[in-house]
Amino acid sequence: MAWGLYSLLGTELFLQMIPGSEAWMFIKFSILLFVLFIAILVGVRNIRKGFEPMLCARLELFLAGIPFGAMLMLLVIPELDSALIFGAIAGILTGIAYAYSLPRQWKFWNEKHSYR
Length: 116
Prior knowledge:
Keywords: Membrane, Transmembrane, Transmembrane helix. This protein has about 120 residues and is mostly helical. The protein has one domain. About 80% of the residues lie in helices and about 0% in strands. It is built from 5 helices and no strands. It has helices at about 1-10, 10-15, 20-50, 55-75, 85-110. α3 (about 20-50) runs antiparallel to α4 (about 55-75) and α4 packs across α5 (about 85-110). The termini are far apart. The relative contact order is 0.11.
């Protein structure tokens, strides 16, 4: 299996994809930017809806924050054996923070800077 993959990809490309190499970090960074874009889209969608219904909006924000936090942690500590566990914990904590802080910050900003 490994030899077939090795011969299929070629020697140089296969060696560039080893975790910790520059190509691997580029892939991780690209995934991080993609999940950040998705989290922003979910946030904007919920802002337009006024975070209603609240439970559904917070669940969507939580689920959008998990991959961003996990990928961010895996960029910080790429070589640690237990990085996957730390990535999962960071993803869950980021999701919780995103789900509970964004609606409150948005409502406070609108009340403070309302020109009506």
